């Protein structure tokens, strides 16, 4: 039987992965999720070698890979002219370079694969429809106050992991002044069946189209049956949520003058969903006592390096490694935080930097494009070796 029991608030990608990692380390987990059901939400997810190595270590990689696509190449393109700025091979070449595969997958498929793995583990209890309202600490651990359809409930645990996202209740209790920072941009998402697009745009290539003030990312999902689109534009509406309806004409107005291929992609969806982009300034400390944070609750970041999910997965593996057989839970949590905070803060800063670089206009844009065209195929990936080469 597990020697200890922990609670995790939030059953997103980070919470599900943390539950699996902790269970593998011999720790019983109560996984709390305020939603009554885990439904399809979000857009596509890119998982680089740093994340897929973790999934392999946890024994869930094959489940994820079954619904994933493994891009053969990536391309960075001028959104207005359609010309190539940079790119190179992925697939076996990238796996050999960084010691792990790169894949793309719809967020719902990733979540479903992790959820299926969680349901197979008897030492993980998943409580849907249970919202964490508050918590207190004492010498024995943490007492959680929960609310569900039947009323209120108290739950005792030896530790609490806040994996409850950007609007984290746990972070709100620990750091009342740490508020999400609005990036003055929106991401619009849609998924299009491959039959609705020209064949030249449905191959296994991840494409990034850059233009003044906006960009577009496209790649295949659903085992190659659909193309995921994420269009990022300026926006001043701070409405939070994954599923705000987005006006198609409003979106397309940001891409007037873009090249025919980009417009063909943007014109295809009948329906777009929009969400405002937020991140967090790096926290000076994550937790206290027997409570800590994980994933977006600790280090929400812009999506411009495609590392949000990957960093949560890394968190989960390091957290479990520190807690396994640790006699002092608070000390183990502080070691976890010390190991993770510098890396995630660096990734956060780098993602913010890419926000500026992606959306340059005028002479600065021309200079960026010149530098990108001059780079070798391997240079773009090598620039991020410090991210992709991380190992648990």
TrEMBL record:
InterPro entries: FAD-bd, FAD-dep_Monooxygenase_BioMet, FAD/NAD-bd_sf
Entries under Pfam families matching the protein: FAD_binding_3
Protein's UniProt keywords contain NADP: no
Organism, as annotated: Ancylobacter rudongensis
SUPFAM superfamilies the UniProt entry points to: FAD-linked reductases, C-terminal domain (SSF54373), FAD/NAD(P)-binding domain (SSF51905)
Designated name of the protein: Salicylate hydroxylase
Superkingdom classification of source: Bacteria
Cofactor list: FAD
Keywords: FAD, Flavoprotein, Monooxygenase, Oxidoreductase
GO molecular function: FAD binding; monooxygenase activity
Residue span, FAD-binding domain: 7-349
